[in-house]
Amino acid sequence: MSTQQPLRIIAMIPARYAATRFPGKLMQDLHGKTVILRTYEAAMKTGLFEEVYVVTDSDVIFDEISSNGGNAIMSKKEHECGSDRIAEAVEDMPVDVVVNVQGDEPMIDTESLRLLLDVFRGKDADLIDLASLKAPLADKKDILNPNNVKVITNKNDFALYFSRSPIPYPRDENTGVTWYKHIGIYAFRKQALMDFYRLPMLKLEATEKIECIRYLEYGKNIKMVETEVKGVGIDTPEDLEEARKILSKKNEH
């Protein structure tokens, strides 16, 4: 069976220099190393990937990774999103599963990634086009926050929909339902990623501004894996300070 064959798994870190909310954030200092270099090294350290690459549109980021002995790829053209940037880079690579690691999340949780990759060896592996992570939300403020993308799944943990709105809508708050935040780390089968690259954006994705909706609109199956780890994304200078504090505490132990 195809599920029993060893999978060739690589990690791709899409990295733009020009971020809207915090330009140049990937080149900011995080305890003596840049954010992007720390992310690259953290992905390598998991031991889960045959190769790790940073794929970028920036000479500065390309040089930062290359000069530190890492694998970097320059994008050939402009891209709307990280998935497109990765798809261009892997098009001619002999890989089975590609993990999209966010360049601004240097605190990679190895156990969550292992759980994510395990589904490609599980009982319904043949049904899975891509897999991603979700984490429970308890605070009402977090549930209502449109910056937190929420996800609902069927009983087999395949995604039904993603939204910036609170889904499900709490018409009856006594059902014991748990709200889940979508954590933007993906593991794609290569074919699903290449299909995404070639298929145009449809209205639901354009309305919500959530790229993984495109997969659902074209009938792809997204397996969701629960984790307690919400990650530390660096979107603002305040987030960078928070990451520095967390790293300081880790270094103390």
TrEMBL record:
One example GO MF annotation: 3-deoxy-manno-octulosonate cytidylyltransferase activity
Listed GO CC annotations: cytosol
Catalytic reaction list: 3-deoxy-alpha-D-manno-oct-2-ulosonate + CTP = CMP-3-deoxy-beta-D-manno-octulosonate + diphosphate
SUPFAM superfamilies per record: Nucleotide-diphospho-sugar transferases (SSF53448)
Keywords, alphabetical: Cytoplasm, Lipopolysaccharide biosynthesis, Nucleotidyltransferase, Transferase
A GO BP entry: lipopolysaccharide biosynthetic process
Pathway assignment: Nucleotide-sugar biosynthesis; CMP-3-deoxy-D-manno-octulosonate biosynthesis; CMP-3-deoxy-D-manno-octulosonate from 3-deoxy-D-manno-octulosonate and CTP: step 1/1
Enzyme Commission (EC) number: 2.7.7.38
Subcellular location: Cytoplasm
Main EC class the enzyme belongs to: transferase
Role played: Activates KDO (a required 8-carbon sugar) for incorporation into bacterial lipopolysaccharide in Gram-negative bacteria.
HAMAP family per the UniProt record, alphabetical: KdsB (MF_00057)
Family statement: Belongs to the KdsB family.
Protein name: 3-deoxy-manno-octulosonate cytidylyltransferase
Species, as recorded: Salinimicrobium profundisediminis
